[in-house]
Amino acid sequence: HADVAMYRAKQAGRNNFRFYKAEMNELAMYRLRMESDLRNAIESQEFVLYYQPQMDLKSGRISGVEALLRWQHPRPGLVHPAEFIGVAEEIGLIVPIGAWVLEQACTQAAAWQRAGCPPLQMAINLSARQFAQKDLVSSIDAALRRSGLAASQLEIEITESLMMTDVEQAAATLNELKRLGVRLSVDDFGTGYSSLYYLKRFPIDKLKIDRSFVRDIGSDPDSEAIVGAIISLAHSLGLSVVAEGVERHEQLAYLARCGCDSMQGYLFSAPLESEAMERMLRGLPPSKAAGERGKMAGAGQM
Ligand code: C2E
Ligand code: MG
Ligand code: MG
Ligand code: MG
User: Fold this and answer.
1) Could you say which of 81, 121, 130, 163 would form a disulfide bridge with 98 (CB–CB 3.0 to 4.6 Å)?
2) pLDDT value at position 15?
3) Counting atoms of ligand 1 from 1, which one is nearest the CA of 49?
4) Residues flanking ligand 1, CB < 6 Å
5) Which residue's CA lies nearest to atom 7 of ligand 1?
């Protein structure tokens, strides 16, 4: 991993300049390799979407899924976004990759619907570079038309930092998206340059409480207070709330007590391949260890 190599390089420090240099070379090679592999990945159809369900806490039903990108690299196998999204963003490749995600997610949601699965919200993550594209709104509109998915079934996840870079521009883009009819949610809520200002200024529908707060439910009263406050704030503003990274019953119980609308996390299901996701939508038992966390995946874990 690049960060690990960098860390080791730093640790090596001055006393061991040759070691440092070797590590730097290795890091540079790794980076070059990744860039060129990434450039081929779309054409070679190496990207796949996994889907993680969000469960509505009142009905117990799946209200939506989040599409999460995976790179099926021929050598190291499945690569997770943390390892390549940053690089893709830096070299601008995130724009065509994001366009692929949008198309694929809309097509999949429409296909599930046509196949008789219950209707759901399909959420996709948007990167800063994508958000800044002039044709963002028209490309989303086009993807919806091509797939036949209703705009109200597409949810766009944006981060706080993405909105705060250029507030005027962000407001204009978000208003246009809203006019199109798509839903807007704030991802990793509470971890960015949190400004409550934008909740008033922007047409947001939903907040996703960051995993770092959810993780500490049961051990840190401050995190619990923050989670509770986010839920009340969201509800007073007419927004819905989903908690990310729910792994334990204790967290679920606390969230339910606070009136949280839905939850997403390994407790309910890991991200799943499309076939496994479809089985779950149909209420069928998982066919094999389909999820990324094997035994943790699949309904019936509740
Ligand atoms: P995110 O949007 O906040 O997605 C949630 C992440 O938490 C996912 O990681 C998911 O697999 C993980 N997760 C879900 N439940 C649990 C849990 O109970 N415990 C723990 N520890 N983790 C859980 P993933 O798939 O590795 O994605 C990481 C980030 O990469 C995402 O964070 C998102 O910011 C970005 N990303 C993923 N797909 C895309 C994409 O298509 N486009 C863009 N621009 N970014 C993406
Ligand atoms: Mg997300
Ligand atoms: Mg998130
Ligand atoms: Mg996150």
Assistant:
1) 130
2) 52
3) 41
4) 52, 68-69, 80-82, 85, 94, 98, 101, 125, 127, 157, 187-188, 211, 244-247, 264-266, 271
5) 245
* pLDDT tens-digit readout, 2-50: 555 555 555 555 455 566 677 778 888 888 888 999 999 999 999 999 9
Alpha helices in the chain (DSSP H): 2-12, 17-41, 81-90, 94-114, 128-131, 136-147, 160-164, 167-180, 197-201, 211-215, 221-236, 249-258, 274-281
Per-residue tokens: 291: 């999820």
The Cα–Cα gap between 168 and 174 comes to 10
Tokens representing 288 are 């094999």
**Which ligand 1 atom is at minimum distance from the Cα of 69?**
38
Look up residue 42 and give its amino acid. Answer: I
pLDDT score at 152? 98
- 291 Cβ contact list (under 8 Å, min separation 6): 269, 270, 271, 272, 276, 297, 298
* C-alpha to C-alpha distances, 262 to 56, 62, 140, 206, nearest whole angstrom: 4, 9, 26, 11
Q: Which of 244, 246, 251, 269 to mutate to test the pocket of ligand 1 (most atoms within 8 A of CB)?
A: 244
Residue 143: predicted pLDDT? 98
Which stretches of the chain score pLDDT less than 70?
1-20, 194, 288-291, 293-302
Rounded Cα distance between 218 and 216, Å, is 6
